[in-house]
Amino acid sequence: MSIEPTDNNNDPAGTDWDAELAQLNASDNTETGSGTNVVPLRKASADADRFDSSYDVDLDEDDPESASQLAKADRHFTVALPDEEQREAIIPAAFRPANIRRTLTRVARRWLHIAGFHAVRLPWYGAKTVLFGGIGALRLVDRQLRWWWLAEQTPVRRAVADNAHRDPQEAAKVYARLLEEAKVTRRWRGFVIFCECVGAAVFGPLLWNMAPWWLLAGVGAVALGGLAHLGRPAHKPIISHAVIAPRFRKLNLDIVLRAYYAAGLGHPDKPGQQVQFGAQMTRDARGVGSQVVVDLPYGKGWSDVVTAKEKIASGLDVHINQVYLTRDETSSRRHTLFVADRDPLAIPAGKTDLLDLKPRNIWRPVRFGKDERDQLVTLSLLWISVLVGAQPRKGKTFAARLLALHGAADPWVKLVIVDGKNSPDWLKFRLVAHRIIFGAVPNSNDSDPIGNLLAALDEILAHIERVNEVLKTLPVDLCPEGKLTEQLARDPRFPDLRVWLIVMEEFQVYFETEDQAVNKEIAAKLSRIQAVGPSAGVIILSSSQKPSGVGAGDVQRLFNRYRDNHAVRFALRCGNRTVSEAVLGGDAYSEGFDASSLPVGDRFRGLGYMYGATDDTPTTRTFLADHGDAEKILTAARAHRERVGTLSGMAAGEDMARTTRDVLADVLLVFLADERLHWQTIAGRLAEQMPEQYADTTPDSISAQLRSLGVPSVNVNRDGQVRKGAKAVDIKTAIARRDGNGV
User: Fold this and answer.
1) Quick one: pLDDT band at residue 248, thresholds 50, 70, 90?
2) Residues 498, 538: contact at Cβ < 8 Å?
3) Quick one: 661 exposed, middle or buried, by C-beta within 10 A (0-12, 13-18, 19+)?
4) Whether 624 contacts 348, CB under 8 Å
């Protein structure tokens, strides 16, 4: 049975019922003076339903003036020079050889999900199709009857009757003509329906008996599907949506202008105070937001728009976390506005790719996290030092540990771990660390942390000297520019040219010990390593929750120098602007980066500003490697080191504290036959007899180390002078106590 449309073109009499009805309405409005207009409803598009995905409605409708505003913006486009043109890639990034596998995998996963989703619901789809198909058959019959009866003429005849009091004779003539036309139309349409019924009665049985089964099944499925679509409620699709696209705010240029004017960055009616656009508004390349180049009025600049960021977000009716501003290098009043569809900072970046347990290369960038546009953020560790700062429990240790895990996964890297807070976060690094030091006072993990730290720093400084000496002796073909290279660092012939990674967790602890002389010695050695170490392949990774107000005098000066000389800073949520500036540097705030303004909450842990790595400062969500993940990665890293034979130090079973620098045993050795010695004498003998370990030792520093190990400082009368010193018997007691405790 066919269905004919119910528009006027199918009326044999050719009567334009819409014109008749419009004329009657016009005459009625003229008399009543209401001026009411009839606005026809738009038909629902047949393509409105999407079965693979659905989209929520836009929050803002298109403004009819947007096109005119866009045309105005076109007149203000900046014409770029040929060498400044931004050209689109010939081959889209998704289809480049390096990305094609990932693109195909993503598409395959999406369609497999859709197929599985619908396969599970097929029985329910079938039941709904049969139910709505029956309702659709009844609706089809009803529509055919209404079409035959010319139901669309009824409002016209009713309007004629309602207006009969104006001119009864004319109304009677029009009404009679309408009735006559209705009779003619009904006869014609009745004949059409009769032919449809005869055709169905004659050809239906023939098709049933003669057509192959697959044709009957196809026709039946199509017919049932059409009837079900006709019978279903408009708000209840038969097939559910397998993929729900995120809801986003649709932006246009007028909305952006509204936001900027509301933020006080211009005025639409004052001469020279209009906000203009340097390019058309476009979607971001990754499809996660909208962006446009904005030209502020003359006299307005970057600092103005940074200060007004929250007001701009309010004018756009989005959260401030969705608004991002990027400076333009060509003009201070020009910048790029990016508005994300949803808050990108609340979306976790996911687990680290280090969980594939494959070896890494320290000469390659670390996959650190994702930025606000969901782009990968990487960090090259070579030749730099990194500072990580934040309040407690904001992800500081996790971020620093992620970088350290990358270094651990490279079997050619030596690790020195110094954990000032003596926490379980770094315990598993015993599997790979050349040295590992816990806390600043003797504890169950480390009997002499200060002494071991000084020994480690001495070893690192000696390593730097060896690297420079070895590089001087290498021929040009091996070392073309006299610098450390990846090939040299991984060459088994040169074991002294390995890359070293030093992790200083809560490094401020070692600037605040009880002994000022020890503080100064540690600070001086760290500063020297930071100054000369990068060129020798020594990487420093520091973290702190107290990046300012540490120490006094020379110690404070050395602390600030050590903190400020980190080339790259990663600031998570900080307590206030002062702490943020201490981590990021003073220039960061003027550029719009304040870590104290980062959002608060569990879902924002691991979120921070990556400053100094590139010209951009991405708001980075770090990848996650929890305690269990770290253990898996470190276990695999140890296996890699064992395979290539690079396991060393404490990880290889060496007692670094004893073989390299056992302060108690060394001091007892220099006593010889003396029972008591001044601290000056002890320091002098250590420097003379063991210069590699104690060349820089002072009386104050050796006194502090021994006192931390339980050796009291006593008055010593020697050579007629009474000074502070130590007794041999006290040192023997400390050694017996240590060994008796199983340390």
Assistant:
1) low
2) no
3) buried
4) yes
- Residues 244 and 41: beta-carbon distance below 8 Å: no
Provide the residue type at 46 as one letter: A
Dihedral sign, CA of 480, 486, 491, 496?
positive
Per the DSSP assignment, residues forming a β-bridge with 572 are 608
Which one-letter amino acid corresponds to residue 84? E
**116 vs 506: CA distance, rounded Å:** 50
283: which residues sit within 8 A by CB, 6+ positions away?
A: 289, 290, 291
Describe the strand order of the beta sheet including 676-678 as a list of residue ranges: 676-678, 721-727, 714-718
Give residue-wise pLDDT tens across range 38-59: 333 333 333 333 334 433 334 4
Q: Report yes or no: 541 and 403 within 8 Å, Cβ to Cβ.
A: yes
Report pLDDT digits (tens) over 362-392: 999 999 999 988 889 999 999 999 999 999 9
Q: What is the pLDDT of residue 692?
A: 66
Please state the rounded mean pLDDT for residues 86-104: 76
Name 128's Cβ contacts closer than 8 Å, sequence gap at least 6.
228, 232, 238
Residue 147's Cβ-side half-sphere holds a number of Cα atoms within 13 Å equal to 22
Q: Which amino acid is at 691?
A: P
What are the tens digits of pLDDT across the range 293-305? Answer: 999 999 999 999 9
Nearest-5° Cα angle at 352, 351 to 353: 120
Give CA separation, 516 vs 203, 319, 446, 706, 726, in Å: 106, 49, 21, 15, 19
Pairing outcome for strands 619-622 and 366-370: antiparallel
Burial of 672 (0-12, 13-18, 19+ CB in 10 A): exposed
Is the whole-model pTM more than 0.70? no
CA distance 649 to 666: 20
CA-to-CA distance for 597 and 607, rounded, in angstroms?
11
**Alpha-carbon span 175 to 191, nearest angstrom:** 24
- Has residue 115 got a pLDDT over 80? yes
Tokens found for residue 628: 């269990």
Cβ neighbours of residue 157 under 8 Å, at least 6 residues apart?
A: 175, 178, 179
Rounded distance between C-alpha atoms, residue 268 and residue 257, angstroms: 9
Cβ atoms of 8 and 17 closer than 8 Å: yes
Which pair of tokens denotes residue 393? 């429990």
Q: How far apart, in whole angstroms, are the C-alpha atoms of residue 66 and residue 74?
A: 12
Q: Are 625 and 401 in contact (CB under 8 A)?
A: yes
Q: Distance between CA atoms of 404 and 503, rounded to whole angstroms?
A: 7
The whole-number pLDDT of residue 237 equals 83
Q: How far apart are CA 371 and CA 375, in angstroms?
A: 5
Q: Count Cβ atoms within 10 A of the Cβ of residue 234 and give its class: 0-12 exposed, 13-18 middle, 19 or more buried.
A: exposed
Query: What number of residues does the chain have?
Result: 743
Report the distance separating Cα 55 and Cα 64, nearest Å.
22
Those residues with Cβ within 8 angstroms of residue 541's Cβ, 6 or more apart along the chain or in another chain: 381, 385, 386, 388, 400, 403, 404, 501, 502, 503, 504
